[in-house]
Amino acid sequence: MSKPFYVTTPIYYVNDKPHLGHAYATLSCDVLARFMRLDGREVKFLTGTDEHGSKVAKSAAAAGLAPQAFADKVSDSFRGLRELMNFTNDDFIRTTQKRHHEACQALWKVIAERGHIYLGKYEGWYSVRDEAYFAEEELTTASDGSKRAPTGAPVEWVEEPSYFFRLSAFQDKLIKHYEKNPEAVAPASRRNEAVSFIKSGLRDLSVSRTTFSWGIPVPGDEKHVMYVWFDALTNYLTALGYPNTAPGSDYAKFWPNVHHIIGKDILRFHAVYWPAFLMAAGIEPPKRIFAHGWWVVQAEKMSKSLGNVVTPESLVARFGLDQTRYFLLREMPFGNDGDFSLEAMATRINAELANALGNLAQRSLSMIQRYCAGVLPAPNAFTAADEKLLGLADNMLPAMREAMEVQAFHKALDAVFATVGEANRYVDEQAPWALKKTDPARLDTVLYVLAETIRQCALVLQPFMPNTTSTMLDLVGVAADARSFAHAGARLAAGATLSPPTPLFPRVALEEPA
Ligand code: MSP
Predict the structure, then answer these.
(1) Which conformational region is residue 307 in: left (phi greater than 0), alpha (psi within -120 to 50 degrees), or beta?
(2) CA–CA separation, 461 vs 453, rounded Å?
(3) Which of 24, 217, 412, 504 is surrounded by the fewest CB atoms within 10 Å?
(4) Which pTM value belongs to this model?
């Protein structure tokens, strides 16, 4: 068994229902997890909810519920994404679970015992929306004269006793870490952003609060609850059974192979604070952090007040699940921002799924029904054109592996759709419909090459479109136990009786719904 693979989503605040941005974040991890499993790796895929802190406490109060009851309700709606989106997470963590309290307190104690936490007093600005502290010079002034965080969120002045983490002591270590491990944060622009923040000078970080109680108590000083980001980040260790770090534990197996997929807005917490907390505890910093971009709607952030929130439910209902999964990872290169539009979605589904991939399968498999009574013919000698197409098909998996290793979903899909395009040209050029009378031996070869190409496309597309590719593999007669990537090189066995194809991707109408 090759290297274990651990992939994590951010844990979602329960102040709001899941929207497209959240579904996108978890989808990217699901596709990675499925890919690595099919490639024979032992995978752990974690998602969950972030339930403490003043932001959640305030939302609960506004909803007239106790924080725990409120968190239970919203956490369930995030858990529901699993079924809606066909996610395969192995665990769902909630920061209000006992295992998490224990892990946080254990981590805190280790860091404190090693001398990296001290008691002081915090005086400064705090943004509840961002759950973040900001220095005076980072703030801007709104048109009404009020001070704002760099994200535009309102800030409040906070003065309270607080424990501090000696972040300043980790400045040089963090710089060295990123010099030595340039791949630890991607894309490179995000690494540069993190490194320049570190180089601009790190101040010690307030890591406890006393003015509210919705959090995990600080061990030995229960007037304090832990800063919600200390609590939240620790979830990645909790799910591995931390503080059990014994050889043979999940921690020992998975921590060295962790991949944190996050949004660009939470880079500083993951690429600066988190590795520093870990170093302070004597734990290796994360191997890989990938910060993806944002889906926006007509250049505006999705928000309840603008009324432009796109829900995953609405897309799945209108376009289908696999179409939605495909579009989200195909439309914008992972790492970039992108404008969401229903029209772009319909256009891409029609061009790439209905016309290219769906049509390739439909016309090729219909000809096997029509000309070969539904039996997969045995090929005769391959021509240069056959070899070329099969060579392209064989090259998809190695190209995808390279792309998925660096979370480049769009490149992985490029490799497949280049082959699909080539296969459709091959059909047009070989014109199998004309061979029935003139050269039946050649017809057999062409149809075999097409079926084999379809098998390989379906095989490697499984992580992106699990349902449709399962149908495609059924249609070309691939047994359920021959669908891992270990079978990529095994050609289809001729002589199998194939079921008549049904259309895989219906064309969708372009007009906006009324
Ligand atoms: N609770 C913290 C994360 C703690 S991780 C230890 C948090 N939660 S969040 O619910 O506000 O956001 C979770 C993720 O959703 C972030 O990575 C954020 O980038 C992502 N997205 C929220 N809206 C988004 C879009 N419109 N587009 C893409 N992703 C976006 O931050």
Answers:
(1) left
(2) 12
(3) 217
(4) 0.97
State how far the Cα of 17 lies from the Cα of 29, in Å rounded to an integer: 19
Strand partners, 262: 291
Report whether 449 contacts 390 (CB < 8 A).
yes
> Which is nearest to 480 in space by CA: 468, 470, 467, 491?
470
CB-defined site of ligand 1, < 6 Å: 10-13, 21-22, 24-25, 50, 232-233, 235, 262-263, 265-266, 294-295, 302
pLDDT digit string (tens) for the chain, length 514 residues: 579 999 999 999 998 889 999 999 999 999 999 999 999 999 999 999 999 999 999 999 999 999 999 999 999 999 999 999 999 999 999 999 999 999 999 999 999 999 999 999 999 999 999 999 999 999 999 999 999 999 899 999 999 999 999 999 999 999 999 999 999 999 999 999 999 999 999 999 999 999 999 999 999 999 999 999 999 999 999 999 999 999 999 999 999 999 999 999 999 999 999 999 999 999 999 999 999 999 999 888 887 777 889 999 999 999 999 999 999 999 999 999 999 999 999 999 999 999 999 999 999 999 999 999 999 999 999 999 999 999 999 999 999 999 999 999 999 999 999 999 999 999 999 999 999 999 999 999 999 999 999 999 999 999 999 999 999 999 999 999 999 999 999 999 999 999 999 999 999 987 655 4
Which residues are registered as beta bridge partners of 296?
301, 339
Whether 463 and 470 have beta carbons less than 8 Å apart is answered as no
Strands 91-94 and 41-50: parallel
Distance of CA 93 to the CA centre of its chain: 16
Whether omega before 217 lies within 30 degrees of 0, making that bond cis, reads: no
**Which residue has the CA at smallest separation from atom 25 of ligand 1?**
21
| Distance between Cα 475 and ligand 1 center (Å) | 39
Indicate which residue's Cα is closest to atom 19 of ligand 1: 263
Asked if residues 474 and 408 have their Cβ atoms less than 8 Å apart, the reply is: no
CA dihedral 47, 48, 52, 57 (to 10 degrees): 130
> Is the bond into 10 cis (omega within 30 degrees of 0)?
no
Residue 405 belongs to what H/E stretch?
A: helix 384-405
Closest Cα to atom 24, ligand 1: which residue?
21
Q: Ligand 1 centroid to 420 CA: how many Å?
A: 34
